[in-house]
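Reading group handout, session on sequence-to-structure problems. Before we discuss, look at one worked example. The prompt was deliberately terse, the way you'd type it at a terminal:

> structure E2 ubiquitin-conjugating enzyme

The input record follows.
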Amino acid sequence: MELKRGSPTVFADFIPHSISRLASHQRQATSATLHPPANPQHSSMARRLTKELAEFEKSSPDWCTVSAVDDDLMHWNAMLAGPENTPYSGGVFNLDLQFPSEYPFKAPKVRFLTRVYHPNVKSQSGEICADVINENWGPTLNVLHCLTAIKQILEQPDMDNPLEPEIAKQMHENKADFEKTAEDWTKQYAS
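And the output record:
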């Protein structure tokens, strides 16, 4: 299976613990030779990103995988399993990660490529509420921390910082309708 940026990924037999099978597909998509940033002053950042990518390839959590896009160390793709006991359960969500030249002092820009019905995610663009990632960001944090924060908002939305106020209102006023719509979107776009 070839992973393609921006296209939906279909896993008919997906179960959350099987996302580790996806890692081998992403490792095949990630060449052994990655292209570091052109600017030599960013060599420590390149070493850091190379190390983080290697750590993920050795021991990624069972709920997500990552790979470099087109051998570009500054651009990654992540696949995140929808958390159990949420409307996103059973779905596999593609995310796009862009690393700024100031990484790790500045958080990566992350957005969903897979459409998701969620109060903290822009339905059309996949933009994620900045507070989720940037609020406590520091150079000791890494991509796993970032993806864990995203998983946590899928489990427990941040109702204080909605990017989609109408979805937040629906979730607050009629949780059953919100969950049905979120489940429908998960089936349509993430499975």
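Points for discussion. First: The chain has one domain: 16-189. Second: Helices lie at 19-29, 43-59, 130-134, 143-155, 165-173, 175-189.
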